[in-house]
Amino acid sequence: MLKCWLKLLCLVPAIAGTLLTVPAYAAKPTWDQVANVKDAAERLAKLQRSAGANGVLKFLDACYRTHTLASKFTQGLEACMAQDYMHSQVLASIYAKLPPEARSKPDALTPETIAKSMGDRFAVIVNQYAISAEQTAAFKRTVDTHAFPIFLKAVFPNAEAAPSAQPDAKK
To answer: How far apart are CA 93 and CA 166, in angstroms?
Structure first.
């Protein structure tokens, strides 16, 4: 079961190389991407609070299975990706803080495995819908700027410093 979830988990800076090597995107999205990722952040925070990480993973699995059936890149798939990106970055940040001996177990999650899984999922979507490197970079900036603060504030309201949006992949 854990291996199944590992395929659904992850992103960190390791994904950047994978995402930035794709052909031009066929058409620019027609929806308000800032509003879409903000809404995705609010919904992700509610889901995280009510169902925890496992609930988020189940939701993301269903989200991707549904939205990748479309012939064109959709607002819903963009929201799945934004939620996956935020959740995976926070998860990687949390796992990066575990002692090395806890992360050395064969079935243990590490920031690197989280990043690789996220990168693999995003690479499939980027290739399937021919999303350009420029659009991928713009998506990441939009989520980092507009959605991440909403998600982090909602999930960690009392934290002096929420987990970093950019976990150190070297740990």
So the answer is: 7
